[in-house]
Amino acid sequence: MKKKGILAVLSLLLLLTGCWDSRQIEKFSIAIGLGVDKGEGDKKVKLSYQILDPKKIGQNAGSEDPTKVVSTSGTTIHQTIRSTALKVFPVFSQHLQVIIFSEKLVSDIALDALINQFIRDNSLRRSSEVYITPGSPSKLLNIDDSGDPASEIIHNVSENRASTIKLLEPVTLGDISIRMQMGLSFIMPRVVEKGGQIQVDGGSVIKKNRYYADISSSDIEALNLLIGRVNGGVIDSRHKGHLFSYEIFSMNHRIHTTRKNGKYKFDIHSEIKGRLSEDWYRGEDSFNETYVNAIEQAVERDIHQRVTRVIHRMQNDLKTDVTKLAEYARINYPKEWQKDKYRWDEKFSEADINYHIDAIVQDFGTKGKTKKR
C-alpha cells in the first residue's frame, strides 16, 4: 500500500461516519505497524505503533513518511495498549500490516504469552504478518526510505518470492497461533537494519515458544527447495569451474510418507524447470544437448548438496523441525500422530529424509531456442 493506498484506506473509513455509533476518523490512531520490545525500567513490554498521520498525507507526497511512531511501556500487552491512549487517540488496529518482535523479548517471555491479547482481540487481524529482529523494533519502524513507511517496506519485500528463493512465505499471527497450539516449532522471518535500510534476512527458529536459533538466508533457500515452496528465483552454480545462473520457472513437488516401528521416512521428489539465464563459461554451447545435460546435472548436484546440508543441520544441530513435514505425518498417520506430536522434534530428528531433484533447462535466453521437454 503506497500513499494512494493509504488515502484509499482513509477514504473508506470516512464512509463509516454515517453510522449511529461512528466516531470521526481524526479521533482514531490508525496503526499499520507494531513493534514489541522489552519494556523500560520495571515495565515488562514496550509497544511502538507506527500510526498514520492524516496531517502529513497529501502534503509533500513522495518525500515525507506519512506516519509517526509512538512508544509506550507497560506491565502487560493490554495495559500498554490502553496506556498509549495517554499520548494519542485510541489505536485502531484493523489495518495493522506487520508486527515485529524483539529477539531479546522472545528469549525472556514466551511468545504465546506475548500474543495472547492479540489473539483474543477480534479487532486485530490474524492475517497481520509477524517478524523478529535482533535490534530495536521501534528503531526499525522509524526508518524512512524516501517517504515509504517502514511497515510498508517490510510488507512489500515479503511479496518478492517470485524473484528470490531466500524469502520465507509470510508468517501471520494466525499461523504462529496454530503452530503453538499444536506444540510445534516454526520459523519467523528476520528483519534487520543494514546501512540505514531495512532488509529481510534469514529467519529465527522458535522452539517451545521462545527464540531458539537463527538460520541464514541460504538456509531459507534450501528449506524452500526441500518443502517445495518455490515461486521463482535463481540458483547460482558452477560448470567446469565457471559460474552460471539457473532461473526457476516452476516446481513440482511430492512427498511420500511411511512409518515403521515408530520411525518416519520421507521420500521427497522435486522437479524444477527453468532457464540457463547466465553462463560465464566462454566455451558454452547451449545448442549442444550434452552441454545442457551437464548444466542440469550441475544444478541437481548443487541443490541436493544445499538441501542435504540444511536437513543435517535441522536434524543434528538444532534437533528441530521447521520443514512442515509434521503435516505429512499428521495426515498420513492421524492415530499415531496423537502420541507423536508431543515429541515431534525428537521424531523428526530420528526420521529418514531422502531428497531427489530433477532439473530441466527449458531454454537459454536469446542464445538459443526454447526446448519442449
TrEMBL record:
<feature type="domain" description="Spore germination protein N-terminal">
    <location>
        <begin position="21"/>
        <end position="191"/>
    </location>
</feature>
<dbReference type="GO" id="GO:0016020">
    <property type="term" value="C:membrane"/>
</dbReference>
<dbReference type="InterPro" id="IPR008844">
    <property type="entry name" value="Spore_GerAC-like"/>
</dbReference>
<keyword id="KW-0732">Signal</keyword>
<feature type="domain" description="Spore germination GerAC-like C-terminal">
    <location>
        <begin position="201"/>
        <end position="365"/>
    </location>
</feature>
<dbReference type="Pfam" id="PF25198">
    <property type="entry name" value="Spore_GerAC_N"/>
</dbReference>
<keyword id="KW-0449">Lipoprotein</keyword>
<keyword id="KW-0472">Membrane</keyword>
<keyword id="KW-0309">Germination</keyword>
<dbReference type="InterPro" id="IPR046953">
    <property type="entry name" value="Spore_GerAC-like_C"/>
</dbReference>
<protein>
    <submittedName>
        <fullName>Ger(X)C family spore germination protein</fullName>
    </submittedName>
</protein>
<dbReference type="Pfam" id="PF05504">
    <property type="entry name" value="Spore_GerAC"/>
</dbReference>
<keyword id="KW-0564">Palmitate</keyword>
<comment type="similarity">
    <text>Belongs to the GerABKC lipoprotein family.</text>
</comment>
<dbReference type="InterPro" id="IPR038501">
    <property type="entry name" value="Spore_GerAC_C_sf"/>
</dbReference>
<dbReference type="GO" id="GO:0009847">
    <property type="term" value="P:spore germination"/>
</dbReference>
<dbReference type="InterPro" id="IPR057336">
    <property type="entry name" value="GerAC_N"/>
</dbReference>
